[in-house]
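Q: I have 55 residues here and want to know how they pack in 3D. Can you give me a structure?
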Amino acid sequence: MEAEGEGREEVEGEVRRMILEAFKVRGLEVEDLRVASVEHEVRECGCVVAACVFF
């Protein structure tokens, strides 16, 4: 999955919708959903990490 947009709120909303849809398709229930993000200006290169913990 990929997400991009203008501003933190827009991207966080898109990420939440994608996560909820992915769980729904798999018949799983979301017990706790936490999204943390930062905005930054890429000067030479940038990096993004996304993680989903199941237990």
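Q: Anything worth noting?
A: The mean pLDDT is 84. The chain has one domain: 1-55.
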